[in-house]
Amino acid sequence: MNETQALAGKKIAFIGAGNMAEAMIRGVLKAKVVEPSDILATGRRQERLESLTEAYGVSGFLDNAEAASMADIVVLSVKPQILDKILREIGDAVSSSALVVSIAAGYPIARIESYLNAG
After folding, report:
1. 51: how many CB neighbours lie within 10 A of its CB?
2. pTM for the full model?
3. Is the dihedral of CA 40, 46, 49, 50 positive or negative?
């Protein structure tokens, strides 16, 4: 099974819709790993989310917990200094079966796990 087959129909939530998230979204769409409808992106500004929706056809959310609750894969793509705040918001919303990926440099995995449901 290749990565496209493994991820078919899986929802990926990018928590934080900055430049790094956009680059990852562009990459997975270009590689046809998932469909645009399977990507959820969160951000603080509606204008940014509308820009991503127009450019890539993804779904935009202002509510991090809402997007995280719908995702099979949660990509934490925010700056390390705000990750505690974000994890407090989404911790209970992330499914215990979800894969959580972080791009926050220097932020310990054990600390991320401490905010999430067991599993």
Report:
1. 15
2. 0.93
3. positive
